[in-house]
Amino acid sequence: MNAPLHRPPLLTRINWYWTFQLAGWGALTLFNSVYGGSSQLRIVVTIACWGSLGGLLLSHLWHGVLRRRGWAANGLRWKRILPSLALLAAIQTASVTAAFHVMYPPDVLRGLAWLPGALLFWFGVFLTWTVFYFTALSLRRATHLEAETLRLQLHGREAALRALQAQVNPHFFFNSLNSVRALIFEDREAAAYMIDQLANLMRHALQSSQHATVPLSTELDAVRAYLAIEECRFEDRLRVSFAIEISAPELEHVRVPPMALQTLVENAVKYGVETNADGGDISITAQRSAGMDALQIEVANTGELRNASGSTGIGLRNARQRLQLACGEHASLELRQQAGWVYATIHLPELA
Known about the structure:
This protein has helices at residues 10-13, 16-35, 41-68, 78-103, 114-183, 188-208, 216-234, 248-253, 260-272, 314-327; strands at 214-215, 238-244, 255-256, 280-288, 295-302, 332-338, 341-348. It is an alpha+beta fold. A hairpin with a 6-residue loop joins strand 4 (280-288) and strand 5 (295-302). Helix 3 (41-68) runs antiparallel to helix 4 (78-103).
C-alpha cells in the first residue's frame, strides 16, 4: 500500500490574490450599500454589486498590465501609473453611471456636479488597490529573498563542509599508507591484514563523506578498525582502552562529523605513540557532561602537548571547523595537557 502523500500547509495552498480581491471588493459593495441611501434598497445594492464587479474586472486587467509591462517589478513608475489610474476611474465611473441610468429614472442624475466626486472616489479606490498590491508584492519579495538567503547560507555551509572533508580524507589515507609501508617488508601477512582493514576504512570514509554527520557508533567502529591496523604496526607499544558510558541505542542517535574522532585518534598515535620509543597509552571515552544534556568525547594519550616539526595542523584545524559547521557554534574541540597526558575533548551541545 502506498504511503499517503503529505499535503502542503493550508496557508500555502490558498490563492491570496483572489482571496484579497474578493474580500476587498466585497467590503466595498457593503460600504456602498450602507451609505448609498435607504430608499429603494434593492436598486442601491444592485448598483453597488455592479460597481464592485466592474472594479474587480478592471483591477484584474490592471494587475495583468502591471505584470506584463514590468511596472511592478522594476520600481514604481508613477508617471505611467497615475494616468492609468485616471483612465480606470473614468471607465468605472462611466460603467456605474450607465447602471444608474438603467436602474433609476433619467432625471435622477441632473447636471455634472456629481461627476468630479465620482471620478475622485474611483480614482482613490484604484489608487488604494495599487498601493496594497505593491505592498503585498514587496512583502512577498522580501520573504522570498530571506528564504533564498537562508538557502544560500545552507549551501555555503555544505560546500565548506565538503571542502574540509576533501582535505581530511587524503590526510587520513596517506597516514594509513605510511603505516602499511612501514610493515610491508617486515610481516607480509600483517601488511595484507592492514590493507584489508585500510580498504574497509576507505569505504567508510567515502560513504560517510556524503553526509554531514554519522552515528557515533559507526565512527567508533571505524576508530577500532584503524587502531587494529596500528596495533599490527606497533604491537605492544600501543595500548588502547575504551570507556563508553553511553548505551548502544543512544550511540546510534548521537551524530558527529565523519572522521572527526578518527582524526583525533590519528594524532594521538602519531604524537603520543610513534615519537616514543616505549610507545604509549591511548584512552577513548564518551559520556554525558555532568549536569547537562550534552555529550563529551575525549581522546587522551600519554605525552606532551607540543608543536611537532613537519605538522601542518590540517587534521585538528579541520576537525574543529567541521565540528562547528555540522553540529553548531556551541560544539567545541579543546586540547589540554595534564599529568603527563594530552587530552583532546569534543563537547556537543546536546544529544541528538
